[in-house]
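Lest this sound abstract, we think one record worth quoting, the chain in one-letter code, the fold tokenised, each line plainly labelled:

>
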Amino acid sequence: MKVLHLISGGDTGGAKTHIINLCSKLKNLVTLKIICFMYGQFYEEVKNAGIDIDVIEQSSRLDLSVVDKIAKIIENENYDIIHCHGARANFIGMFLKLKIKNKPFITTVHSDFDLDFQDSFYKRVFFSFLNKLALKRFDYFVSVGSALIDKIKGLGVREDRIFLLYNGFDFSKEIHYVQKDEFLSKFLDRKVFDSKIVIGNLSRLYKVKGLDVFIKAASIIAKKYPDVIFLIGGSGPQKEFLKQMISVYNLNDRVFLLGTIKNPYDFFNSIDINVISSYSETFPYSILEATALEKCCISSKVGSVPDLIEDGKNGFLFEVGDYKGLAQKIEILLQNKDLIKEFGQLLSKKAKERFSAENMARMQFEIYKSILSKK
């Protein structure tokens, strides 16, 4: 079986992590190649993972000259399946499908496609429209988590064309990170974090990530617990908005924006409680990355997160946007600190049993076999 994966190459979120974790294990089950449309961090990480990857550069997002080049590769190398990831690859896939007949085209839906471009009005109107137009042309769909299945059906897609696949993490790989003091000293004076409970949120600084919810919850906790600080790791268009919000709530000495974090494990190793405050997610990799270090997690009840976190049993969930609910869950942990370690261990155990990269690759392989049998 030969599978060609298409992805933009500029991805920095869950789609990037998904395809690297997936293909690092899937390459043992099928012959695969990844084609992306730009050089950068994604390309380097895929190469370093020992995965076959080529770059066919676009001069712009709408440059369709790559379509003929990719079509020739598909024909010459006789790929059985073309598998797209993300809006740009879906757009290219729509035109490829006009040239390549009798080959199944699959797309993985990694996120709510109506919310992918919320931080830019132009992109939200134009690229969201193009993406939905492209999505309707695909033969089969892979939904990352159960929460997106109804969303895909809303495009007019029959249920028998949709397959469920959870994100998976390679728990077998060696994880490298610097010690807490070394990492945090790059950003903060030692007296700021020494002997403190550290609550962290690692995400891109986009509206959909709900960092306003995180800061509002921090303002409640900060008034009652002087031994707690809050860290936000990541970059994005909401940086200035979040800085202003921190100032308005008088949290400049309690909530800190760290900027881009090159190694997520440096961040997760330095915190005690991991928070996901998003308004929308499918199945965020930041939970799995943190569970690899046995970190306790509190998350908004989004996407398929409840399939991993059982509220009150191995972590906590709160309703989307409910900053008071988030603060209440944080307070329970601060008053019962043994739970922080206990929940972290229980969550890690469940993640390793059900959400490994090996499981994800095997499920994807079975999806491919099912699709080819239908053909």
